[in-house]
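tool=predict chain=A
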Amino acid sequence: MALNLEKQLLFYGSYHHNPTNIKIHVACVPVLLLTAFLLGTNSPTLVQLPRWLTISGLPPNVGTIASVLYSLIYMLMEPVAGGLLAPFLIAWTAYANHLTSTYGATANYWATGLHIGSWLAQFLGHGMFEGRAPALLDNLVQAFILAPFFVWFEILFFLGYRPELKSRMDQAVEQEVLRYRNSKSASGAKPKGISIDGDP
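tool=predict ok
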């Protein structure tokens, strides 16, 4: 996966153009990522670190390692946005380690239920509003990594971050959605729920 920010946002944005579907993802994608980190903290320690590299509350289990990798990828893609998100991801993972070590099965039951519910809501959003299969069906790894960062950028754009990038991406996504609609029309399949003006 190339670390070209605009290319990656365009890939993911072309699957998430409908405003209602975007709102569903803004609500559900963070839940998916954070509960996945929590469930990953149930794994045993994968690497024995020297004492000077050991951080209290962050044993090197699957959850901790995943949160560090996500943070590094995001900072490489966009240092400011990634740098703002990374401390939250690491802090949550430390809290997730506390939850699983303190509450055990109860924390896992809640995380699993929220995780499954978020997946169902997103598939519903694609089926009812976007009219296009999720990005993960075309590129599983790319979609899993990009989804949280795409949502983070939706929030940052809403707060006024990099308006010139938002303008470029909006135009590029509209062109990509139009290309998709035209290809579906040419093949005789009618795309549902997608509109260039953003309405279902």
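The chain has a mean pLDDT of 90. DSSP finds seven helices and no strands in the chain.
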